[in-house]
Amino acid sequence: MRCWRPFAVLLALLSAPAQAQAGESLLDAGGWKPCGRAASPLADLSPGTEDPEPGRLVRGERVLLFASDDGRHGREPWVSTGTGGRGTSLVMDVRSGPEGSEPSGFTRVGDRVFFVADDGEHGRELWVSDGSSRGTQLVKDIWPGVDGSYPLSLVEVGGLLYFAAGDPDHGRELWRSDGTSEGTWLVEDLDPGPEGTSPYQLTRGGDGALYFISHFQGFYMRLMRSDGRSRAAELFRRSSEGGGLESLLAVGNKLFFVSTSVHDDVMAELRMTSGGAPVLVGSFPSLHDLVALGGRLYFSASGEGDSTGEELWRSDGTRKGTLRVKDLRAGAEGSSPSGLTVLGRRLFFSADDGMNGRELWVSDGTASGTLLFADVVPGAGGSSPEALTAVDGNLFFSAETPGHGREPWVSSGSTGSAAPLDELASGMDSSDPGGFVRSGWDVFFLARDAAHGRRLWALPFRPAHQCDNDTR
Fold it and tell me: Where is the signal peptide (predicted)?
């Protein structure tokens, strides 16, 4: 059975400068909001089929580019203008026939989008698109022939695309591209020879440099820093046996990361670098959901050597400045904060304090400013908020309520403002929405209904004073 698979997605393409400036001033004023509560399904590209789990949705500005299978072309890149404009159409049939090119890794650089696809002749290689068929092309056949270089971990740094890719002579190493064949080249052969170092978790640092993790000589994992010109510097290494490096996150000019070990009682060590030798910030039995807010790192963790379960923590990059924000649920069970999401100057997250069930909480980084934000389902049951996403001054999320299942909700961030959108799947047949992202004048997301399975939806989203107009 053929499936429509809304997969990864998009980005701002070709916005007029005046429109962009007007939009930014409105955003600064917090002027965007949903126009009503009714979302509309976009074109049913493959009627009557069920969708598998979708991929990541990435914010765009004027159009939405995504991967989909309409049952005739296989999975290919598509474009949509949402609830108005030209509608939804195939960008390009990269690989003719029903097999499809399986595009992935959509990453915006300027007014173009890079992605990885297989056209059936060159294997999986790097492509670029401006959202039109004419402006979609293969960037470079890095590994000649049908094998392909399999680009991964695409990221924009300084107006260029950096990624990991393999070729016959160097193995998998660090590459960069400006979108042309001539401007796409190997940055550095970190371990000369065909084995390669397999860089991953490429991350743009606050200092403008590229940070990434690479393997070395089969025994080590290394944190590396590159300015794209001189030789990359090794900042930290550890044995790859029984441990690893992960969770790179830039917080201002600092870069935090986690080193793990299965041999020690302490499973996760939080470290920080400002471009030099990393320092140990803290050790935790568990640590996850790292986010940046106001020059500090926030995360969910259980403390080393105490009886407290997982709670909300913060760090300024020093041991002394790494503290538990608040113990929401006393004892070893903990409130288990998850889905940490920044909206303005506050942090929203899901947690269970043992009395209200798992509900939506908010924090300004202080104990007194960490509060229950919305008790969607009163009592110990809770609504279990998921898919928390900040969209231009609004918080979108899914919540599960009696009689309605899991449906989309939205809040302006002010107390008492959380409210459901119109129900997409009637009764207890949850629509299970997620992947909220604004592009142009709509908030797109993925949700399920009984007739079509999981597909793309759009909610009109405008500057507040234009909600009664259809000005575009």
Answer: 1-20
Q: Count Cβ neighbours within 10 Å for each residue of 402-430 and write b for 16 or more, e otherwise.
A: eebbbbbbbbbbeeeebeebebbbeeeeb
344/393 Cα distance (integer angstroms): 7
Instruction: Return d(Cα 229, Cα 359) in angstroms, integer.
Output: 48
- pTM, to two decimals: 0.89
- What does the alpha-carbon distance between residue 74 and residue 69 come to, in Å, rounded to a whole number? 5
CA-CA distance, 199 to 190, in Å (whole number)? 9
How far is residue 184's CA from residue 194's CA, in Å, rounded to a whole number?
19
- Distance between CA 262 and CA 233 in Å, rounded? 27
Ordered DSSP codes for 387-439:
EEEEETTEEEEEEEETTTEEEEEEE-SSTT--EEPPPSS-TT-----EEEEEE
Picking from 388, 387, 300, 376, the residue whose alpha carbon sits closest to that of residue 342 is 388
Local confidence pLDDT in tens for the 472 residues of the chain: 334 444 434 443 433 333 334 344 443 345 889 999 999 988 666 665 554 444 455 554 467 888 888 888 988 998 888 876 567 889 999 999 999 999 999 999 998 999 999 999 999 999 999 888 999 999 999 999 999 999 999 999 999 999 999 999 999 999 999 999 999 999 999 999 899 999 999 999 999 999 999 998 777 899 999 998 889 999 999 887 778 899 999 999 999 999 987 766 668 999 999 999 999 999 999 999 999 999 999 999 998 777 789 999 999 999 999 999 999 998 889 999 999 999 999 999 999 999 999 999 999 999 999 999 999 999 999 999 999 999 999 999 999 999 999 999 999 999 888 999 999 998 888 999 998 988 888 999 989 887 777 888 999 999 888 886 654 4
Tell me the C-alpha distance between 113 and 179, whole Å.
Answer: 9
Residues 6+ away with beta carbon under 8 Å from 311 = 300, 301, 302, 303, 324, 325, 326, 327, 328, 329, 334, 335, 337
